[in-house]
Amino acid sequence: MQKVEPKKRLGQHFLKDKGICEKIANLYRSHEIAPKIIEIGPGMGALTEYLLKRTELDTWCMEVDDESVRFLDIHFPQLKGKVIFGDFLREDLSKITEGNKIGIIGNFPYNISSQILFKCLEYRNQIPEIVGMFQKEVAERVAEKPGSKQYGILSVLLQSFYDIQYCFTVDEHVFNPPPKVKSAVIRCVRNKRETLGCDEKLFIQVVKTAFNQRRKTLRNALKPIIQQADLPFLDLRAERLSVEDFIELTISVSRVFDLKR
């Protein structure tokens, strides 16, 4: 098998620039606490090649394309037994981690990249670091700070438990086939926050409700939740609030609920 043809239905855009592959592989720095890493969507192994050169890492791959799995089996015999044929979004990561920490890395399919991040967030205590290629707009949104139009639900939820670093922008021509948008690599490192200090489900509800009508002040955007309660930040729009502000707001909303019971 000489090569794998990229499949549009899987959102495959194979990275072909070796310099960028090496740069991405070297971004991962949590090898002391999580030497086992899983590359999502390795395709023909452009990034895998450089991950394997880092001998301090225990590199595994997860691939949903059976043709790519066969290619990896042939061209990367050192991965024998370490290529998981499966969909990352459907996998029970607790069985893969076996209670240990793992890193996540990859040139992620853009059509599911946000879902990959949310899955990692679900297993945040097992995943100390994520390094990935995203559509540039998504990468900017994840890394953005309060006060801009890019700052939104994804920003707040990811930054609650990860410190985000926007690493570099990638042009279209380094992929086969070239995507119609620019790309970017970000690095997410687990922060020291163990819990939010508030009801997590309510926190997510408050954040999503606030940003679903982001042009309105929180007083109007959160009416379905708070009605006429007097809470902090109500004269601001959602994009002005930091993670800590949303936590404070959620605690206040929770108190209102308690009073109504």
How is this structure best summarized?
With 261 residues, this protein is of the alpha/beta class.
Question: Can you put this structure into words, describing what you see?
Answer:
The protein is of the alpha/beta class and 261 residues long. The protein has helices at 18-25, 48-53, 66-75, 93-97, 113-122, 136-143, 153-159, 200-212, 218-221, 223-226, 243-260; strands at residues 14-15, 36-40, 58-63, 83-85, 103-107, 129-135, 162-170, 175-176, 183-190. The longest helix is centred in the last third of the chain and has 18 residues, at 243-260. The mean pLDDT is 95.
Strand content range: 15-25%
CATH superfamily of the largest domain: Vaccinia Virus protein VP39
Topology order in helix (H) and strand (E) letters: EHEHEHEHEHEHHEEEHHHH
How many strand segments? 9
Top-tier CATH class of the largest domain: Alpha Beta
Distance between the termini: 65 Å
Quaternary status of these chains? single chain
Q: State mean pLDDT (0 to 100 scale).
A: 95
Number of domains: 2
Low-confidence stretches: none
What topology, given as strand order, has the largest sheet? Answer: 4-3-2-5-6-9-7
Q: What is the alpha-carbon Rg in Å? A: 20 Å
Alpha plus pi helix count: 11
The largest β sheet comes out as: 7 strands, mixed
Structural class: alpha/beta
CATH fold title of the largest domain: Rossmann fold
What topology does this entry show?
Layout: E1 14-15, H1 18-25, E2 36-40, H2 48-53, E3 58-63, H3 66-75, E4 83-85, H4 93-97, E5 103-107, H5 113-122, E6 129-135, H6 136-143, H7 153-159, E7 162-170, E8 175-176, E9 183-190, H8 200-212, H9 218-221, H10 223-226, H11 243-260
Parallel strand pairs: 2-3, 2-5, 3-4, 5-6
Antiparallel strand pairs: 1-8, 6-9, 7-9
